[in-house]
Design brief:
- The complex is a heterodimer.
- Chain A is mainly alpha-helical.
- Chain B is built from nine helices and no strands.
- Classes of the chains: A mainly alpha, B mainly alpha.
- Chains A and B meet through helix 1, helix 4, helix 5, helix 10 and helix 11 of A and helix 3, helix 4, helix 5, helix 6 and helix 7 of B.
């Protein structure tokens, strides 16, 4: 339901009222922002020395540091994303295993991984395996997101029509090959938006490296702030805005990408021409899968343990 | 495990702080989220824009950075907060966006006909929302809301990096003291988190089964 159903197309009166409300609200917002800015000004937010770093050659030193931090953040996210997808696939296969001897322990382990904070897992790997902060962050993100992606893939596989698996078995594929070649590719396609949204969460979670001590961008930022503090340059505020801008730029770009993929995937697939040049009508996805897709993938970026993957579980 | 049982007061302190943060943030953030969701679908353009900008920025900022702001930036500007208060503010700001999105997707799950019907009998936007749409959205919205709370329980762990003593801090402190038992300590703390999250997850499952509406 779009918002516009909730109210009539505005007539002249309603338009006037809406405009007045808009203006009143805008004024209120401006006043609120003004008050906040005034408070900041009292605290000295606009003293020139808080911002003058952008006019000095020093800024290049800080920028190089931040770029190195951003590099670490992105490399952690990249490695962890690949690892999480691979591990997620393995989890999904094992979770669907025929023998309860594999299925039940895996179910419990997945539930366990999803129910604890990633930070706890990072600390655990850091302290128990003494792996160094960088790899502690990478491994914790792989395991945690692998569990979530595995659950998503499983839900995707369950939403497929039964006939897919049955026909795979009927043409003589082993159960494993049926899963690998028939079910998983389709599950990936159905769950792609949710998996991508989860990868954005993964990128945001690399910032937890700040706490365990991996040299990612927020930690570098903090160190730079402390460094300049000692020299009498109070740059915490400007650093915050720079970090915010960097994260928003990266995440909003990726979010836009996810929405685009979501829109593309929701369309029935056209496919190429057949050998004789004719075209086959696109097969509608099963209703369960469609229902999964109608959700805004970005609305699902917080996850649960225990709860099945909506609809699917 | 032994180490945890020997330090029960410490564990209780961490558990108490985790629950306190979760409770306070839910109490403040949930009404804020409903308000934001209402603004997001309202007829007034300025409200829509403000709500959209708020949720988009809050959802795309890492929680660590929000904590960074309340713990290190605000004090430099003369706004010195207790670390716990700072944590509540940071978590509320971050979580309210997710509450808002959950409520909004619930509003979207109510069939169009309901809103059209209430419009056609002459109810205004406020009446349509409060009398017709929101009560129906409630049942489909409750499971996702609880999911947000579960995520919140896990997110409170970030406060550890900003001088608030939560459950994870217990794990870190105890494993520093009892180096030989760190495996059991972490296992115990993980179980403590599951103690909160699993019942909530069960509740979600239950509600989804009980309240799933065939539309």
């Amino acid at each position: 339901m779009s918002g516009s159903v909730l109210f009539d197309a505005p007539g002249p009166n309603a338009m006037r009222r809406s405009r007045i409300l808009s203006i009143v609200f805008a004024v209120a917002a401006v006043v609120a922002v003004g008050l906040a800015v005034y408070q900041l000004w009292l605290g000295g937010a606009f003293y020139q020395d808080r911002w003058d770093i952008f006019g000095q050659p020093e800024v290049w030193f800080a920028a190089r540091g931040l770029m190195a931090g951003l590099g670490t953040t992105l490399s952690i996210a990249g490695i962890a994303a690949v690892g999480a997808i691979i591990l997620g696939t393995i989890f999904a296969i094992l979770r669907n295993a025929l023998t309860p001897w594999v299925r039940i322990p895996i179910t419990i382990v997945l539930e366990f991984f999803r129910g604890m904070p990633v930070l706890l897992m990072m600390l655990f790997i850091l302290i128990v395996f003494a792996s160094g902060a960088y790899w502690a962050v990478v491994w914790a993100l792989i395991v945690y997101n692998g569990a979530i992606i595995g659950e998503a893939l499983r839900a995707g596989m369950r939403s497929l029509p039964k006939g897919q698996r049955e026909s795979g078995l009927a043409i003589g594929l082993t159960p494993l090959r049926t899963t690998l070649e028939i079910e998983l590719p389709q599950a990936f396609r159905i769950m792609l938006p949710i998996i991508l949204a989860q990868l954005i969460v993964l990128l945001k979670d690399t910032s937890l490296g700040y706490i365990v001590g991996s040299p990612e961008i927020i930690r570098i930022g903090r160190q730079l702030v402390d460094f300049y503090d000692r020299q009498g340059g109070p740059y915490a505020l400007s650093m915050f805005f720079v970090l915010l801008a960097i994260y928003l730029a990266v995440n909003l770009t990726l979010s836009a990408l996810v929405r685009w993929v979501h829109k593309r995937v929701s369309r029935p697939r056209k496919g190429g021409a057949n050998l004789d040049g004719t075209r086959t009508e696109a097969v509608q996805l099963p209703t369960e899968a469609l229902r999964q897709q109608q959700r805004d993938p970005m609305a699902d970026t917080t996850r649960y343990p225990g709860a099945g993957m909506e609809g699917g579980g | 495990m032994q180490a945890i049982f020997e330090n029960l007061p410490l564990w209780l302190q961490g558990m108490g702080m985790t629950l306190l943060l979760t409770g306070l943030v839910t109490l403040i953030g949930l009404p804020l989220g409903v308000l934001l969701a209402g603004m997001r679908v309202s007829p007034v353009a300025a409200l829509r824009v403000v709500a959209a900008v708020w949720t988009e920025i809050a959802r795309n900022t890492p929680l660590t950075l929000v904590f960074f702001c309340t713990a290190f930036v605000l004090p430099k500007l003369g706004i010195v907060l207790d670390f716990t208060v700072g944590a509540v503010i940071a978590l509320t700001y971050y979580t309210s966006a997710f509450f808002a999105e959950a409520v909004r997707s619930g509003i979207n799950s109510v069939p169009i006909g309901q809103a059209e019907a209430s419009r056609s009998i002459g109810l205004g936007f406020g009446q349509t929302m409060t009398l017709v749409v929101l009560p129906q959205a409630f049942r489909s919205v409750l499971p996702p809301l609880i999911n947000v709370i579960i995520a919140l329980v896990k997110n409170t762990s970030v406060a550890m990096g900003f001088f608030v003593f939560v459950l994870v801090s217990v794990a870190q402190r105890l494993s520093n003291v009892y180096g030989d038992q760190s495996l059991q300590i972490f296992f115990g703390i993980a179980l403590s988190y599951l103690l909160i999250t699993v019942p909530l997850g069960q509740l979600v499952d239950h509600l989804e089964r009980k309240w799933s509406v065939q539309r």
